[in-house]
Fold TLC domain containing 5.
Amino acid sequence: NKQQHTNKGNNLQVSRDHQVTLRYPSPPSWAPSEGGVPFGSLHGRSPSSLGSALRPPSHKVPPDPRLLFRRRQILVLSPSFRRFLLRRSALRALGPRRPRLPDALGQVLCSLGGWLSLYISFCRLNKHRSYEWNCRLVTFTHGVLSIGLSAYIGFVDGPWPFTHPGSPNTPLQVHVLCLTLGYFIFDLGWCVYFQSEGALMLAHHTLSILGIIMALVLGESGTEVNAVLFGSEITNPLLQMRWFLRETGHYHSFTGDVVDFLFVALFTGVRIGVGARLLFCEMVSPKPKGFVKVGGVAMYAVSWCFMFSIWRFAWRKSIKKYHAWRSRRREERQLKRNGHLKTR
């Protein structure tokens, strides 16, 4: 057992334990060593660590060192390309890029021009109607469009505003915010010029404009601003329908009662109920900025001011409907007693 046999043709050596160790041929002249480590060592590992005849490696046939060297040469990247990849990975780690302010400003100006053009078109088509009629048509159009877009962002595209407040803005959120900002600038200018709204509505429009600008400048918190937009605009089409019904003389009907009921129910449930939950998530989250939270509190306070006025209106209308129903029932009973009411 202590004798050694040499097979020069196969370059194999048998040890005294009868273990055959695989040796690689000497590296070629075109394969230099890397970092002082010989080529055949494969990153500093000796060939014996790859296996032996009694303890073979995981693969039966050891790889050809020439092929390994060629693959490593292919994977060698230039320094400039490696710097490009490192820079790209660092940008991805930082999250989505903030949109450039000139791009957002251009979108806002295009939105403002679009809403103004739509208003001028309505004025030319409805020459027999008032300016407020045409402005409310624009408001109705914006309400329907913003409800659909904000609902898609919140429920489909994401992120969910109750779990991810203060997250970076997505490109779709930026587009919707720019579209809405152009409308609010148009509507605020119209209300100031014609002096058709009170101080509460002007404060609502001003806070909305400041909130959207803040989200665009910061590049974050567009998630909760979009949710506030959805809650604020979900009752807007019903509000405009009430005004149109009143102008056309169809408000005191069953359709008017249904519109009023849906308006009060949606405002109370979504803007006050769901809005309170959203404000709570905004306040307890550490991500949003402090002034963003202050803006959320201000918007919720404005919603409560509107809520008091709506409840007062709903109470008065309910009392009026109740008294009208009682007087009608009293007249029917009197007619029935006197025999003037025929029943079958």
Summary: The radius of gyration is 38 Å. The longest helix spans residues 290-338.
